[in-house]
Amino acid sequence: MKRHLTLAAAIAAFATPLAAHAQVAETIVDLEGIVGQACVIGSPTTVNLNLGDLTGTDGRIAAALTGSSTIAGTTIDTAWCNGPGTLSLAATPLALTPAPSYATPNGFARFVTYNADLTGWTSALQVRPSDDSNPADNSAANAAAYANPLTLGISSLATLNATGSAANSGQILEAGAYTASVTVSIAVN
Amino acid sequence: MTARRIEIPLAGNNKEKSVKTQLLCALALGLAATASGAAAQASFATDSDALTVRTTVAPFCGNLAAADPIELGALTGAEGFVVDQFAGAPKYESPGYYCNAPSKVTLTATPLKRTPAIAISDTSSFVDRIDYKASLAWGAGIAGSIETLAGAPVVITATQPHTGLLQLTLSDPQIDDTARPIAGDYAGSVTVTVTAGN
């Protein structure tokens, strides 16, 4: 009896060290990546904004186009920055293109300014170009990532002086085609 | 970009090691893809849209003011001969008239004729027609005139957009000889036509 117990005990004694030596292998794999800062703006639904007939019977800008009602506009469905970014708006005056060989006659204008309003982000932007050589620009910085569609509207037309450098409202518009450019941009801070 | 780091165990059987090696390779590829994606995203640091705003103003000349008949008054003096000048400087005006493009002004005129016409038996002493001169002035620098005796239309060219008081003045009544105008009402007309564009 004692021998059986001893054997059993011996077996038990051997069994315990075996259990203590059950092997587990483990490794930790660290993962790292990066998301670069980026700002992306999609294409506007309308690239060419046609203002239509500007003048009334007296050859001057029609009264309805000089107020704050939007004459033409477009939307940009995609506009985002995945980090701090700055939204900017710049515009040039409408200019008679091509310009005639003679200077602007007295009583007439060949430059037109307007309000370009950009809304949809945390700060609305407005520019009103009054100098053809220095497009008006405005910008607003966001301190955090942001994404929202943008809306651009054109309103409040008025004639400029002969060089397009200052206001001179109420002049008769010279006949011809007028063009201007508006640039919407976003950039990583 | 932060460096990638992998801890590799030192012990284990071959089978187990080969499995871990495969897994490490897959992870390395995944990290490599993330790194290249990050490099690609850096190129979108700035983005912009350029829009064009446009319109067209058609060549146009405003509407001339309505013209009431011009009363020339008495056409003859005490001796029955035509007056040297019309009384009262008769004129037509269209204030602030404009063309937003270069334009042409065409003048045509008909002589004053006895109305209704009647037969004249003594044509050496009497006539039924009085000629005159119509002069147009438009703001500064645009002017011209027509004489009914000459007959042909006159075209006045404005080479630039123009605005100002458009005024038509009648003067210099005359008869082709020393005859007297026959009695009666006389009527004539002047037509001013403005066309935008040269």
The chain-level mean pLDDT of chain B equals 81
Helix/strand-derived category of chain A reads mainly beta
Q: How many beta-strand segments of chain A?
A: 14
Q: Into which percent range does the helicity of residues of chain B fall?
A: 10-25%
Q: Number of helical runs of chain B?
A: 1
Q: Which ranges of chain B are low-confidence, i.e. pLDDT below 50, for 5 or more consecutive residues?
A: 1-42
Helix and strand element order of chain A: HEEEEEEEEEEEEEE
Strand segment tally of chain B? 10
Structure annotation, total helices of chain A: 1
Which structural traits does this protein have?
heterodimer; A: 189 residues; mainly beta; eight-stranded antiparallel β-sheet; three-stranded antiparallel β-sheet; 14 strands; elongated; B: 198 residues; seven-stranded antiparallel β-sheet; two-stranded parallel ribbon; 1 helix; 10 strands; 14% helix; rod-shaped; disordered N terminus
Description:
Chain A has 189 residues and is mainly beta. Chain A contains 1 helix and 14 strands. The radius of gyration of chain A is 35 Å and the shape is elongated. The N terminus of chain A is likely disordered. With 198 residues, chain B is mostly beta strands. Chain B is 14% helix and 41% strand. Chain B has 1 helix and 10 strands. The longest helix of chain B is centred in the N-terminal third of the chain and has 28 residues. The two termini of chain B are 68 Å apart. The N terminus of chain B is likely disordered.
